[in-house]
Specification:
Elements lengths: L1 H42 L1 E6 L16 H18 L3 E4 L15 H16 L3 E8 L10 E5 L3 H17 L9 E3 L3 H4 L5 E8 L3 H7 L2 H21 L3
Parallel strand pairs: 1-2, 1-3, 3-6, 4-5
Antiparallel strand pairs: 4-6
Helix pairs in contact: 2-7, 4-7
The protein binds zinc ion.
Amino acid sequence: MKKISMETILGVLLFAGLGLLFTRGIQKTAGEAVTEEKQAAVTATVVIDAGHGGSDPGKIGINGAREKEVNLAIAEELKACLEEAGIQVVMTRSDAGGLYQESDENKKQADMRARCAIIDEAGAELTVSVHQNSYPAESVRGPQVFYHAQSSEGQKAAACLQEALNQELSITRPREIKANNTYYILKKTKTPVVIAECGFLSNYEEAEKLTTKDYQKQVAHALCSGILAYLEASGG
Ligand SMILES: [Zn+2]
């Protein structure tokens, strides 16, 4: 009786010990998975392309606002927002200048080629090209995101960004994402790219808002939310 009892106790202890080892093993694996997830989030790269610059002002607003300046201001706010979320950011430009040499005969072409080279080099999960729109009819307004028609990832990203812009900027008459096959930056790049037209500089109220730091921050925050939603949905 006493002997059986001892064997039982030893058996129980052995079983408990194995159980503890097994549980620790599981915990370690789960811990490793969390670490890997964090590392994946940290290593996600996004290219922010502030459209125009240098001798190319982009659209000129009804209020005189220059698109190249609005684009850069929003791009800088967006960079800060993404970096705070642990995303690695590559900027195509960080100052007022364009991406061409004074000696370049065709500055616009040189500028676009340089942007595409940076985008291809970065191999980013997503590139967001920041622009402002313009239209002859002053009443037309609101953000709109473009993607390449043959890019399903571009389309998914565009949908995430459009949704975030419409929501966070409380757009009363929301616009929809639009496919495009002619924009150079959409055609000539290897990774998913979207063009975010944040608003219309031809609409007085929107043009005025787009020149304020407060609204630029709101736009950047919305773009940031949309990008994070896309990265999360695509497992990055
Ligand atoms: Zn533009």
